[in-house]
Amino acid sequence: MTLRADRVSRGADGTLILDGVSLTPRPGEVTGLLGPNGSGKSTLLRLLAGVLAPASGVVTLDGRPLDGLSRRTVARRVAVVEQQADTQVALTVLDVVRLGRVPHRRAFAPASPADEEAVRTALARTGLADRADRAWHTLSGGERQRAQIARALAQEPRELLLDEPTNHLDISHQLALLALITELRLTSVVALHDLNLAAMYCDRLVVLGQGRVVASGTPDDVLTETLIADVYGVRAAVTRADDRPHIRFLGPVADS
Ligand SMILES: Nc1ncnc2c1ncn2[C@@H]1O[C@H](COP(=O)(O)OP(=O)(O)OP(=O)(O)O)[C@@H](O)[C@H]1O
C-alpha cells in the first residue's frame, strides 16, 4: 500500500489543469512523470503531497484519504522536493537537512541520536558531508538542490516525490542522484524532462498531456517514436541500449 491518486481533477483561474488523472505508483519502484511544460506534473505532485486538495477525485495513503490525515502523519511518510525550494538565508546546510527530522520529533524535544544519524547519512549520501556548516546563500544551485534532497532523505520517508530534481545538476550529479533514488527502493514519483534519463532510471512512466494521462507503462511501452511525436511534437529515433530505450531527437515534427 502506498500513495495513490484516483481520478483527481484540479483547476485554477477557471481552467482545468488536471482532468481525471489516476496514478498508482508501485511500492519500491521509481515512477517517472513526463509531459510537456504546463501539462500538470507539478500540480499532480502537489496533490500527491497533500499540499493542494483535488477538486474531485481522491488521493490516498495506504487507502486512507489524505485530507483525513494530519500533516504530521503525512510528513512522516511522504517527502517532497519542489522545483524551487526557498529557504531562509541565515540557515546552514545542516540546519536545512535537520528540518527533515521535524515530523519525527516531539515539540521542543532535543535531537535524538537517531535524528543525528539520519541527518549524517543523508548528508553523506548526497555528497554534502563536507559542506554541512556552509551558509545556504553561499551554495551553488546544484548544491542547494542536493541539500533539499538530503533534507528529504533525512525525513526517512517511504514515499518520495521529486519535481525535476536534476535541474541545476551537472551530468555526473544527475546520474548519481537518479542512481541514488533507484537504490533507495522507496516509492518514488519523479517529474523529469529528460526522456533518456527517464528511460535509464525509471521502472514505469506516466505521461501527462494537457492535464490527462496520455500513456503509462514501462519505458519500452511508453517511449515510442509515435508518442514523442504526438506529445512533444518532436521527431525521434528510438533504439535500444543496455536493455532500455535510447532516444535521439531529429527535430520538430514538420507542419503538414
Ligand atoms: N495557481 C495557478 N493559477 C493559474 N494557473 C496555474 C496555477 N498553477 C498552475 N497553473 C497552470 O497549470 C498548468 C500546469 O502547471 P504545472 O506547473 O502543474 O505543469 P508542469 O507540467 O509541472 O510544467 P513544467 O514542466 O513547465 O514545470 C500550467 O498551464 C500552469 O500555468
From TrEMBL:
Alphabetical list of SUPFAM superfamilies matching this protein: P-loop containing nucleoside triphosphate hydrolases
Annotated signal peptide: none
Span of domain ABC transporter: 3-235
CDD domains named among the record's database cross-references: ABC_Iron-Siderophores_B12_Hemin
Keywords: ATP-binding, Nucleotide-binding
GO terms assigned for molecular function: ATP binding
PROSITE patterns xrefs: ABC_TRANSPORTER_1 (PS00211), ABC_TRANSPORTER_2 (PS50893)
Gene3D superfamilies per the UniProt record, alphabetical: P-loop containing nucleotide triphosphate hydrolases
InterPro entries: AAA+_ATPase (IPR003593), ABC_transporter-like_ATP-bd (IPR003439), ABC_transporter-like_CS (IPR017871), P-loop_NTPase (IPR027417)
Protein name in the entry: ABC transporter ATP-binding protein
